Amino acid sequence: MAPPRSCQLAALLVICACTVAPLAPAAAASVPITTCRSFCGNIMVDYPFALHPGCGHAGLRDLLFCINGALMLHLPSGSYRVLDVDYAYRGLTLHDPAMSDCRALDRTPGGRGNGFVLEPWREPYLSPDPDNVFLLLGCRATSPLFQGFPDRHLPCRNVSGMGCGDFLACPAWDDYYAGGRRPPGDDAAYGDAVGTGAPPECCAVPWAAIRAVNVSRLECEGYSSAYSLAPVRAAGGAAGWAYGIRASWSLPESNRGFCGACRATGGACGHDMESHADLCLCGDWNSTSNCDSSADAAPSGAAARSPDAVAAVRWAVLASGCLPVHFWCRIDITVVARLEIKLVVDCGFPF
Ligand SMILES: *[C@@H]1O[C@H](CO)[C@@H](O)[C@H](O)[C@H]1NC(C)=O
Ligand SMILES: *[C@@H]1O[C@H](CO)[C@@H](O)[C@H](O)[C@H]1NC(C)=O
Ligand SMILES: *[C@@H]1O[C@H](CO)[C@@H](O)[C@H](O)[C@H]1NC(C)=O
């Protein structure tokens, strides 16, 4: 006897449910790689960074944005173009259009708002490299930079062989001093000029000395930043430096194990958008550990999802008016959920 058409439909629904819906969180996930990884222009954005909310590490949330194909990093001090993300060395190379370099100075009496200032909660996760030099330009004598040092000993120094001595020899200063200003002497670079009452034209510091480059708070007119990737001195002095900001990120040690286990079980590493705790994204549910541990399902819509799917199938089967099939199907759903999708083949009907 051929079963009614509605039964065939119900059977089809059951098979579809068996095949498509992961009926229980216990089934290991295989989250598409594109869930959290993406590209902006030709730069890959991957963990711990992300362009999607909830992806990436919480310490680096709300940081990168893809704007007209340009990857931008947003901080309280401004927006920086991301030129490179080096996942092997955990390094970011940033460019600030408002910074001076060897060819052109960008100075205004009030100081441009830029520099480099991080949100306090982000500081453990992101910071400029120790061999990145910040060159503060035209700071006033009253600048916090020059206060509080015993015997007026200035914080200005060379960083990784880069300092104001070389920077003041840049062609950018030719135009500046062509305007009738006093050309900097050798002293200007290290503040020996303080004896004369004048602050140094330029003061080079590493990030660790100030931990926030707020150009206006430091009462400066501008800044520059350069980094060296090789321990050799660049030929040609400051003209040969790489201008920009080199920053690196670091994550808590515990994150490595968490993320490794999450990925190994087919998940994508992310974070809870409210608590900011690590979260393993397992497709249609989230885990506080990994996609093999249904006991660690994060409380959210996820838990209700699977029972919903089963209920929908039951309803469909009941509605089709073939009760014997209903009973048989229910048992089968359980079997499929515990074992593997391979069983779907046996999840047929006798017609
Ligand atoms: C899982 O977490 C992500 C990121 O926090 C969130 O966008 C998503 O809605 C969550 N999924 C479920 C099923 O709760
Ligand atoms: C920089 O300093 C100024 C003046 O102290 C302050 O108003 C501003 O909020 C600071 N900017 C940042 C990004 O911290
Ligand atoms: C900084 O570097 C310049 C150029 O290499 C060098 O001439 C100068 O003596 C250095 N200054 C300090 C204070 O180390």
Automatic annotation (TrEMBL):
According to its record, how does it sit in the membrane? Single-pass membrane protein
- Give its localization: Membrane
Q: Which residues form the Wall-associated receptor kinase galacturonan-binding domain?
A: 36-95
- Give an example GO cellular component term for this record: membrane
Keyword vocabulary terms for this entry: Signal
Please indicate which superkingdom the organism of origin belongs to: Eukaryota
Signal keyword on record = yes
Example GO molecular function: polysaccharide binding
One Pfam short name: GUB_WAK_bind
Q: How far does the signal peptide extend, from start to end residue? A: 1-28
Instruction: Show the InterPro entries listed in the entry.
Output: WAK_GUB (IPR025287)
Q: State the name under which the record lists this protein.
A: Wall-associated receptor kinase galacturonan-binding domain-containing protein
Q: Which organism is it from?
A: Panicum miliaceum
Which taxonomic lineage is given here? Answer: Eukaryota, Viridiplantae, Streptophyta, Embryophyta, Tracheophyta
